[in-house]
């Protein structure tokens, strides 16, 4: 090698590689592997409550330098806050659709050398006060190369790609109006956890969730082991099969026979049905436990099943083979017929196991309605025979701007079909889930979301149309088309979509609904049950939809069809769907705003042929002036399911802290206690705070008009929790957001507490909450974890008095640990601890070897 050749080789090794107009695949991969992309909330106080300044910083630690000026590469990020800025720091910023945004270098781009950083500040909608508002898996695209994810963003660990929130203008949402939220701290938690009520462990073990109507404990106990026998009415074969599986988890294998076979002298559990029990009230039961006899009598099969759950609830956590349960007499009847949980599986799919675990635990706590939101803009999650595109395209997101292979990537999925949130249940899987739920007396209510929130279906059917049209099958291609190709309507939704509304003027839209409903009915029949309720969404339709649709103009031009303009189209759609479902013997359901002409007037109930038409009422943001819709809809003849955002939305954070996952548009936080405090018999009694955390002292004055009274209480069917999954990407995350808050829904839906009224009675509430939360700690949470359910553990509270630290937990008897060496070692907190004046103390709650809460610091 010559001297010149040697020098050139040395330069190639030591000089960074500059990329100009084009990046090769290896350069793209190298740059995104070595460059850190970090988001930051710079200033929430920038523009009142309207917008914030956020930033994206690129720190180039790779061996690839980006050249100045325009290039063909682009950076894509997921931002649920729509970015207002059109350019910044040498980039043009473009909103693609939904949360997807693109940063494209322009002539002013200064380049990015190895070892240097560039900070791109931009203005975006509203505010960011939680790390989960920033989405992972930012990626880079160049030419036709495979997209590359910035490695440090390919994670669920917020700290890897988000700068810390430390200042007031990061931790609070806005300063005009003033955000009066009390931000979570060890001291605030300690104050909130304090109680004058003490519950013994023995009483906590006896606490059944949900609490029965009448309980009378007696002396003594029954000690169950495998010498016990089981006798049951023949109609209870299914319930017995589930019961035996549950007993097996505790190491109990009981001989079981139908009740025409006489029991031996061995101790025996008897399962019976008496339809006259509780005056024939459905789902009622009696449970009596004696030393050598347990008898469960139900008014129906469901009642027997719930009696079994109460028996199992008395089993201590972790017990095996020999189990002592206290002697007791219980008489019980549910408060509501509708005790439910809504689960948005469309925004992100979390796997088959998550669905089965949720249904199994719902049954444990006597919840009976599973509202499965399987379709939305970001995904379609069940296989429909004859429409394979719904899952081939609609169940997956990736980088395909033409959306012929997948949906546009959203919500932190990134550019690949292997990314988080993708997937669906096969037809076989769904039938299996239906059988599993039916055996546990849980009805699954599927939701075909429309006419808004329907992008996954729309894009799937457009892909179908394009394929069949290319094959010359134009009539077949049009059969299930959900959009009018000539529609020039312009709109943007709350979630920043511009193309997510079914065209309600097309016959093919209703053919699609009919086809999907038909296939769902077939699945229910195959599972040995019936599809009796189907939800069609109806909410958040983009304003401006159908205003420039030729298909809709043709409807308007016909003077005899009762449709004069765009404002008539939502009720028109609802009527059409209601008639389709009535023909099939199915009761429709919708979200409240899908049933309203305006803020106060529901659609005319007598225009729908359905005996039952359920309405999920969610919007109780009191200052918005529509929180009386529950009573307006019930009074007009709709069957109302209370689903209120301020207490029952479990996609909201557990506390006001940036590390807590979730959206927080309805209220800054919803912990287990707040859900527990919900009072379904008086909607107005739940008016506690405005969104700014201003106490509400006069609801009528806040709203500015008279609030209607409930005239038809029989139309309040019950209540349910809600879980929307925009920020929730894994099974672990989704279950922890639901549990243990769902137990509060079970409690309130089944049992009316003595402290409920036009306001909370403080002393009986404190006693009831301490009993409930102690039961969570000593047995319910351990049982959930043992069943493979990830549970959120409350972060402990603590205060310092001089050199002494005092700690407590929201759940009595949950272990607390502390560290005085920044988390290197941990010790169990049993009594107040002495520390030096300047010592920082870390604390956390612990359940077992694997499960701890988030860490809090006491300075």
UniProtKB/TrEMBL annotation:
<dbReference type="Pfam" id="PF02838">
    <property type="entry name" value="Glyco_hydro_20b"/>
</dbReference>
<dbReference type="Pfam" id="PF03174">
    <property type="entry name" value="CHB_HEX_C"/>
</dbReference>
<dbReference type="Pfam" id="PF03173">
    <property type="entry name" value="CHB_HEX"/>
</dbReference>
<dbReference type="InterPro" id="IPR015882">
    <property type="entry name" value="HEX_bac_N"/>
</dbReference>
<dbReference type="InterPro" id="IPR004867">
    <property type="entry name" value="CHB_C_dom"/>
</dbReference>
<dbReference type="GO" id="GO:0030247">
    <property type="term" value="F:polysaccharide binding"/>
</dbReference>
<dbReference type="InterPro" id="IPR015883">
    <property type="entry name" value="Glyco_hydro_20_cat"/>
</dbReference>
<dbReference type="InterPro" id="IPR017853">
    <property type="entry name" value="GH"/>
</dbReference>
<keyword id="KW-0732">Signal</keyword>
<dbReference type="GO" id="GO:0005975">
    <property type="term" value="P:carbohydrate metabolic process"/>
</dbReference>
<protein>
    <recommendedName>
        <fullName>beta-N-acetylhexosaminidase</fullName>
        <ecNumber>3.2.1.52</ecNumber>
    </recommendedName>
</protein>
<dbReference type="InterPro" id="IPR014756">
    <property type="entry name" value="Ig_E-set"/>
</dbReference>
<feature type="domain" description="Chitobiase/beta-hexosaminidases N-terminal">
    <location>
        <begin position="33"/>
        <end position="188"/>
    </location>
</feature>
<dbReference type="InterPro" id="IPR029018">
    <property type="entry name" value="Hex-like_dom2"/>
</dbReference>
<feature type="signal peptide">
    <location>
        <begin position="1"/>
        <end position="21"/>
    </location>
</feature>
<dbReference type="GO" id="GO:0004563">
    <property type="term" value="F:beta-N-acetylhexosaminidase activity"/>
</dbReference>
<keyword id="KW-0378">Hydrolase</keyword>
<comment type="similarity">
    <text>Belongs to the glycosyl hydrolase 20 family.</text>
</comment>
<keyword id="KW-0326">Glycosidase</keyword>
<dbReference type="InterPro" id="IPR008965">
    <property type="entry name" value="CBM2/CBM3_carb-bd_dom_sf"/>
</dbReference>
<dbReference type="InterPro" id="IPR004866">
    <property type="entry name" value="CHB/HEX_N_dom"/>
</dbReference>
<dbReference type="GO" id="GO:0030203">
    <property type="term" value="P:glycosaminoglycan metabolic process"/>
</dbReference>
<feature type="active site" description="Proton donor">
    <location>
        <position position="540"/>
    </location>
</feature>
<dbReference type="InterPro" id="IPR013783">
    <property type="entry name" value="Ig-like_fold"/>
</dbReference>
<dbReference type="GO" id="GO:0016020">
    <property type="term" value="C:membrane"/>
</dbReference>
<dbReference type="InterPro" id="IPR012291">
    <property type="entry name" value="CBM2_carb-bd_dom_sf"/>
</dbReference>
<dbReference type="Pfam" id="PF00728">
    <property type="entry name" value="Glyco_hydro_20"/>
</dbReference>
<dbReference type="InterPro" id="IPR025705">
    <property type="entry name" value="Beta_hexosaminidase_sua/sub"/>
</dbReference>
């Amino acid at each position: 090698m010559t001297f010149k050749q040697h020098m050139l080789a040395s330069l190639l090794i030591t000089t960074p590689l500059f990329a100009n107009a084009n990046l090769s695949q290896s350069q793209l991969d190298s740059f995104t592997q070595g460059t850190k992309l970090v988001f930051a909330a710079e200033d929430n106080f920038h523009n009142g409550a309207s917008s914030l300044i956020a930033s994206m910083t690129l720190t180039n630690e790779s061996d690839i330098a980006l050249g100045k000026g325009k290039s063909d590469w682009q950076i894509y990020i997921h931002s649920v806050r729509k970015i207002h800025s059109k350019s910044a720091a040498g980039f043009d910023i473009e909103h693609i659709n939904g949360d997807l945004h693109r940063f494209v270098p322009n002539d002013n781009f200064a380049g990015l050398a190895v070892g240097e950083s560039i900070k791109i500040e931009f203005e975006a909608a509203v505010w960011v006060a939680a790390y989960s508002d920033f989405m992972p898996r930012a990626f880079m695209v160049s030419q036709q190369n495979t997209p590359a994810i910035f490695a440090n963003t390919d994670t669920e660990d917020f700290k890897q790609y988000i700068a810390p929130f430390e200042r007031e203008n990061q931790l609070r949402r806005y300063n005009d109006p003033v955000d009066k939220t009390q931000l979570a701290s060890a001291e605030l938690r300690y104050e909130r956890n304090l109680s004058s009520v003490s519950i013994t462990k023995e009483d906590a073990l006896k606490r059944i969730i949900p609490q029965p109507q009448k309980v009378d404990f007696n002396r003594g106990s029954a000690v169950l082991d495998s010498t016990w026998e089981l006798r049951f009415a023949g109609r209870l074969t299914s319930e017995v099969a589930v019961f035996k599986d549950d007993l097996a988890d505790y190491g109990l294998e009981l001989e079981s026979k139908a009740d025409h076979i006489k029991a031996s002298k061995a101790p025996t559990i008897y399962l019976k049905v008496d339809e006259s029990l509780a005056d024939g009230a459905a789902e009622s039961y009696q449970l009596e436990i004696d030393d050598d006899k347990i008898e469960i009598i139900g008014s129906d099969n469901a009642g027997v099943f719930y009696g079994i759950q109460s028996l199992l609830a008395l089993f201590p956590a972790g017990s095996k083979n020999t189990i002592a349960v206290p002697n007791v007499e219980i008489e019980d009847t549910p408060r509501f017929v509708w005790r439910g949980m809504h689960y948005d599986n469309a925004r992100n799919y979390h796997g088959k196991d998550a669905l089965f675990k949720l249904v199994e635990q719902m049954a444990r706590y006597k919840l009976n309605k599973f509202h499965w939101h399987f379709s939305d803009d970001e995904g379609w999650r069940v296989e429909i025979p004859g429409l394979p595109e719904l899952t081939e395209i609609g169940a997956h997101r990736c980088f395909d701007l033409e959306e012929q292979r997948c949906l546009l990537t959203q919500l932190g999925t990134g550019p690949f079909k292997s990314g988080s949130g993708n997937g669906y249940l096969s037809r076989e899987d769904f039938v299996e889930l239906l059988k599993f739920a039916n055996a546990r007396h849980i009805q699954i209510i599927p939701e075909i979301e429309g006419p808004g929130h329907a992008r996954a279906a729309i894009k799937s059917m457009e892909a179908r149309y394009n394929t069949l049209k290319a094959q010359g099958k134009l009539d077949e291609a049009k059969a299930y088309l959900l959009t009018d190709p000539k529609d020039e309507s312009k709109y943007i939704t709350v979630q920043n979509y511009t193309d997510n509304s079914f065209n309600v003027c097309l016959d093919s839209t209703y053919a699609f609904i009919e086809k999907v409903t038909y296939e769902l009915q077939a699945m229910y029949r195959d599972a040995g049950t019936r599809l009796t309720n189907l939800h069609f969404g109806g909410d958040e339709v983009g304003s401006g939809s159908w205003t420039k649709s030729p298909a809709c103009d043709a409807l308007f031009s016909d003077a005899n069809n009762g449709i004069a303009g765009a404002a008539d189209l939502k009720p028109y759609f609802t009527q059409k769907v209601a008639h389709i479902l009535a023909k099939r013997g199915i009761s429709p359901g919708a979200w409240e705003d899908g049933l309203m002409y305006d803020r106060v007037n529901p659609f005319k109930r007598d225009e729908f042929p359905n005996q039952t038409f359920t309405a999920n009422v969610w919007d109780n943001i009191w200052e918005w002036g529509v929180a009386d819709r529950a009573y307006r809809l019930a009074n007009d003849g709709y069957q109302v399911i209370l689903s209120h955002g301020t207490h029952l939305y479990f996609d909201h954070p557990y506390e006001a802290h940036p590390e807590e996952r979730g959206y927080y548009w309805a209220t800054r936080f919803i912990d287990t206690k707040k859900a527990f405090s919900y009072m379904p018999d008086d909607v107005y009694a739940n008016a506690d705070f405005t969104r700014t955390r201003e106490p509400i002292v006069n609801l009528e004055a806040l709203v500015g008009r008279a609030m209607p009274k409930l005239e038809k209480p029989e139309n309040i069917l019950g209540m349910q929790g809600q879980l929307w999954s925009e920020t929730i990407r894994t099974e672990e995350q989704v279950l922890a957001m639901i549990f243990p808050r769902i137990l509060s829904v079970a409690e309130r839906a089944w049992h009316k507490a003595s402290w409920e009224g036009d306001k909370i009675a403080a002393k009986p509430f404190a006693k009831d909450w301490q009993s409930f939360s102690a039961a969570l700690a000593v047995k319910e949470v351990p049982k959930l974890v043992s069943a493979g359910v990830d549970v959120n553990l409350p972060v402990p509270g603590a205060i310092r008095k001089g050199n002494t630290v005092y700690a407590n937990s929201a759940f009595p008897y949950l272990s607390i640990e502390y560290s005085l060496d920044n988390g290197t070692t941990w010790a169990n907190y049993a009594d107040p601890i002495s520390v030096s004046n300047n010592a920082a103390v870390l604390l956390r709650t612990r359940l077992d070897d694997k499960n701890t809460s988030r860490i809090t610091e006491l300075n």
